[in-house]
């Protein structure tokens, strides 16, 4: 049996500082995750092209 979940949280922009602030809020609410998986580098590549 596998359990998967996603957590979406809006941020004001796509900076590292905004990500870290959102991640800290997540940890304070839910606790430290045992595993983090990302969907690749879609957004960083997209932002660089603009």
TrEMBL record:
A GO molecular-function annotation: nucleic acid binding
Domain of life: Eukaryota
Protein name stated in the entry: Uncharacterized protein
Organism: Trichinella pseudospiralis
Lineage, top ranks: Eukaryota, Metazoa, Ecdysozoa, Nematoda, Enoplea
